[in-house]
Amino acid sequence: QVQLVESGGGLVQPGGSLRLSCAVSGPTFSRYAMNWHRQALGKGRELVAAITSGGDSSIYADSVKGRCTISRDKAENTVYLQMNNLKPEGTAVYFCRAIGDDEDKYWGQGTQVTVSS
Question: How does DSSP classify residue 43?
């Protein structure tokens, strides 16, 4: 069973930065593509960024492009989301997701990010 544990959320002022981490248990981290999603209060869950299993390609939502960077560390079994120049509309619970074949997909429990002065 794969488990994902996010950390790094918190309260930050507009224009500030945060780095979210998602630690993935198990020896099979390298076979999963990894996503970061977020869900604001009263809204649906949306994709923020995604990175391939090999880490060679990534995509971003238009709303965060140029301000966020997704990366992964094979030695640490961890995926990161560096977020800069945060805006109030970035307030949400951020989730990581491991994407494998077929039903081999997992969610973390989420970490709260609040952008407010």
Answer: S
Strand boundaries in 43-104, DSSP class E: 45-51, 58-60, 68-73, 78-83, 92-99
> Which H, E and C letters describe 25-42, residue by residue?
CCCCHHHCEEEEEEECCC
Residues in the chain, pLDDT under 50: none
Whole-Å CA distances, 38 to 9, 62, 74, 89, 113: 12, 14, 23, 11, 9
Tokens of 99: 């994407």
What is the tens place of the pLDDT at every residue in 51-81? 999 999 999 999 999 999 999 999 999 999 9
C-alpha distances (whole Å) from 85 to each of 14, 29, 63, 102 are 7, 30, 12, 36
What's the confidence (pLDDT) of residue 27? 79
The encoded tokens of residue 111 equal 């970490």
